[in-house]
Each structure stands twice: as C-alpha cells, then as structure tokens.
Amino acid sequence: MLSTTYRKVAAGIVVSAAAIGFIASQEGFIDHTYTDVAGVKTIGYGHTGKDVQDGQKITRQAATELLVKDANKHWKQARRYIKVPLYLHESDNVLFHA
Questions:
Q1: What is the pTM of this model?
Q2: Which of 15, 26, 6 has the alpha carbon at shortest distance from 65?
Q3: Contact between 78 and 94 (Cβ < 8 Å)
Q4: What is the pLDDT of residue 40?
Q5: Cα dist. 77→55, 73, 74, 88 in Å?
Q6: What does the pLDDT look like over 37-60, one tens digit per residue?
Q7: Where does the pLDDT of residue 98 fall: very low under 50, low under 70, confident under 90, or very high at 90 and above?
Q8: In sequence order, what E strands does the chain have?
Q9: Is 17 helix (H, G, I), strand (E, B) or coil?
C-alpha cells in the first residue's frame, strides 16, 4: 500500500511545470492562427476560444502563459470529482486525460 505522506488533497494541487512541458511537447507550437482538424480556430499550444481570431500571431512566452491558464482551468474542473489524495504525478495524469 502506498503511503499518503506525500499525497495531497486534489484541491491543494496546482498544475506542475512537468505537466505543462509534457502538454506543450504533445501539442506542438504554432505561432499563428490555424484551423484544427475539428474546424476550431487554434493558436500556440492548442489554445482555443473566442479570443482566437484569424491572422493572429503569438510568441512562445505568450502561448505558454495561455497554456498554463488553460491547464489550470481544466484541472480546476477535473479536481471536483477527485475524492482521494493524489501524488503530483497522479494529478498530472488526470490533467493529461481531462
């Protein structure tokens, strides 16, 4: 049985730098607006939303900031359903599948 000594309640966990790096590597960086395979306007590391407009350009720094914001939003939604303490790598794994 795993010790809970290093586990935290999901509400107390933030998205790790490792998770952000992994997501960025999987998404890839595109510095301009494009339409993804689902027909959604996208920019940077897979950012979508009403703020994405045709003809936009973005720097890696700005795209990373959006990625962190997006990842934290998704984690906040997912963690409501987690009722057990998690190790950080476990919470990262939840985020990858959210």
A1: 0.81
A2: 15
A3: yes
A4: 97
A5: 31, 6, 5, 17
A6: 999 999 999 999 999 999 999 999
A7: low
A8: 30-35, 41-44, 47-48
A9: helix
